[in-house]
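Weekly puzzle thread! Below is a chain. First person to post its structure in token form gets bragging rights.
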Amino acid sequence: MAAAAAAGRPWRVIPRPVLETVLHNHALRPRVPQPLLFHGPRGVGKSTLLLHRLLPRWSEQPHAAAFVDFLHPTPISASANAAPWSLLATDPAPSLPDLRRRLESALEGLARAAVLRGAVGSKDVLAALSRSHGLRTALSRLAGVPASRSSATSVPARSPTASVPARSSTTSVPALWARAVLASARGDDVTFRIGEGEALNCSMEERAYMQEAMAALRVAKEVLGMQEGWRKEAVREMNRTGRFSRSLANSATDWPCLLLDVLSGAAEEDFFQPKLVLNNVDVLRKAVCEDETMVPAAMYHDSFIWRVIALGANEQCLPVIISTSDGYYSSEAFVDFGFPNIFISRETFGWTPQEAKLHMVSEFFSEQEWKVVDEVLGPNPRQLSEIYMLKQKANSPEVLHDKNIEEIIDTYLAHLQVSVVNPAMEEALRILQKFASDVRDGKVPENKLSFGAPWRHPPRDDNPNLSSKWAKIQLMDFVQSFVNTEFGVNYLADDSLEILDDPAAVAMIEVGLLYQQREPSFMRPITRGIQRCLARWLVQQRLQLNFQESILYRWQRLIRGRSYRHLMKEVGYKLFQRRYSYVNK
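Winning reply:
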């Protein structure tokens, strides 16, 4: 009776009071010294928590929030009947220009909110812009001042008492700024104009002040865009040679960082408290960019994050919450950015089995159904919601399974195997083939190919067939060694850190099948369902081996095979000492 009643109930977002309180208390402050990194495996409810529990509270005055999801252009409803999630995007990979526009549009919306509340004026924009940029040349062009007249002011005049003050007063930065803002205010760009339905209760003077601030923002954007355009050929040369220039990297992030600077300066308790939420920020790091005059996506990502950190450390910044499911941010980002506690780290793993049972039993599943679901899939909230969705659709004529929970789970695991795990493993194989190609081209350093490493000897010939066989055997060898460790290793338990150099481990982390936790430092499949599918994949691959491939696989396991049993979860774990000794090396 209870199971029948539960089958008719819609899925709901279940509150998580402790985690919500931690994030909300961080966002309550107008300015903070560090960004907050909100990370954890896929499917544990990070995006749902932010979108449906916290953002509504952060959007009420005096608060204002900008939510940027780099994976989904429009937020996905928690109750949407979407198909089970995939680790790999089916659409073409997002481009860096699109993601830049998404980030800049969100910050421009926050800036508009600040202007409408009277928190930002033209002088604030000029002060923030002048701190790190030379403005005279760009403002002269925007203000329509002839180049000859501008350059003449740099030549000493014969009569210092009369002519120089007159010319310098008309070509000083404040004067050029005022002229450029006035010219911009007459434009018809709706992005930087006060709409007819906005600021209705304001006086003419207040409305003029707001319009001037919007025009100033437009001028600042044009100035920074002009200066970035001047550096395009230098960026092309940097991309061609593979070098790095901090000034060129920063030129790409000048506009969003200027808006962050202005908004942070305008933040005031109980008046205007902006926040920025960056969801799936790992997509920005891995975006594609075909424009040779634009910095690479990874460089853009690093420059923006680093400048957010610097703004918080030097002057304090508005609360920036970075949400991601990529293990890189759990285990390596804090090392790459130079300090173990460079971010405020909040890692979540979803519900414990006891918490999941408390929320699921009697409302969504019966006691007997929950025992099966918990044993096979575990307490991952996303997969629980999808199993419940399949359970609700069991009476539909197009569905091939009945209401039996075992049938539903078997159908779900089959779909997970075909649509999620198998495509991800194919992508991992391509990553391993690229590794073999990089070894042949000398792009892999020698310390990554230490003596005795199972991946030390890829095929020497540029033969796609041999490379594919080698990659397949390497991946099977790694999965078998992972099965022998019961699908969990402590990657910091051994000072050699060998598993972090393993290209098979790196490939499976990149495609999203494995997750590197920060505390405790375990590497494991993201869900128990994915773990079962990995074991099925290994069995399928072994059954498909021909005689020659079977001999090669057995030789790999006996002679060069991986063994990570000494890194099992229960062996040699120390919470802090290993991590900090690793960071300080």
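Puzzle host: Confirmed. Bonus trivia for everyone else. The first helix runs from residue 2 to 7.
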